[in-house]
Amino acid sequence: MPNTSKSLFERGMKVLVEGVSSASRGPATFGGAPRYMSHGHGARLYDVDGREYIDWMMAFGALPLGHAHPKVVETITREVSRGTHFATALEVEVEVAEMLVSLLPHVDKVRFANTGTEAAMAAFRLARGHTGRRKIIKFEGHYHGWWDAVLVNTNPLPPTLLGHPNDPIRIPDSSGIPEAAWKDTIVVRWNDVEALERAMALHGHEAACVVTEGVMSNMGVIPPKPGYLNRMQELCHQYGALFYLDETVTGFRLSAGGAAELYGLSPDIVTYGKALGGGLPMAMIGGRADIMKGLEWGKVLHYGTHNAGRLTLHLTKVMLETMLADNQAGFAKIKDLGQTMANEVRRVAKASNRHGILVQGVNSMFQIFFTDQEEINDFRDFCTHVDRMKFRDFTLRLMDKGIYMNPSATLHSLSSIVHTEADIAATGRAIAEVLEEMP
Ligand SMILES: Cc1ncc(COP(=O)(O)O)c(C=O)c1O
Questions:
Q1: Residue 117 alpha carbon, nearest atom of ligand 1
Q2: What pLDDT is stored for residue 3 in this prediction?
Q3: What does the DSSP 8-state code read for residue 87?
Q4: Which of 11, 39, 251, 379 is disulfide-compatible with 247, CB 3.0–4.6 A?
């Protein structure tokens, strides 16, 4: 069989940084040449060498409808001949905003952007503008995009660099970030009420916001402990800091109302991305009217040539209509498939009994941890107890058997409405084989 991925990688390395356009797609994650993909259909990806894969990554969650869903193809085909983007006011912009506001009880108004990072940048600026405060409280291991102020403690660290749990060592994840950018960023241990209460007592009265992912989804999948996020919301109210729920991953994933609905939260600000665009870049900032008013001209600025692209909005609309049809059947389906897949991995791992494996999941999201622990509860557990190299070996072997999961243990797998029970069974069989083959 030709190895076109390998030759594309050699060509790519000459003209693209790492041969790709994001580290998670290249040698930093794959340990060598990634698979170059040619097309996708339903739950399947096809690479340039003609290999077929069941795709459990789904563009990091951007594809709840899978690849080339007939409604997506029909919408793009219908709308593209009328123009892709005008950077003007649009009827479909109002329609999609109306759908979002009627769906999310904590959102009175939205502002569209393109990526989760951009939306988060605007949300942090808005929180600071609205409160007149400067500090941001974020959590170890939580990722909110690659903006300087919050790109702190988002990558796994050696346990000796974690610091005391009451006072995590703050470490920016990149060169080129001036200290001034994260001077006002407070990093707190997640899933630990006492740590949060202590941090709020120290900094709460100066905090513009407390930002959290609803489910920690950039260290595998780590669910919040019961009541933890509700306590966080309460503490925010007590100290006058905005409660900012980053739904970039969890939005239109965990439920129609995201993590807020699943855990009974009423955040002051939310940001969405990924699934929102149904496969094209779309993000939003949403929140209470009095807070969102801060984004008006002359107050807190937010611009963007590509905001609210016409074609993208039509895809957002079709994604929402499809997922919400028949009493939100799409969300019930991805939840059921995700949970069934997670259980299948548990069953296969138990039957094999050759490796310490823990599967953690919430609805449509799950991750497989190579660990001897019974639970991974936070960043510290992840950094100390999860074997990331073993996971990479596992996923690369799975790729040879036609199953695509991203090789980074910090990411996770996802179901879409086009996965099937047969895909789950085939994935289970491949996992069983790989677990026998692995040293
Ligand atoms: C929770 C969270 N927030 C923000 C972002 C940034 O989104 P984007 O990659 O669209 O900039 C991500 C991306 O993975 C994310 O997981």
A1: 11
A2: 74
A3: S
A4: 251
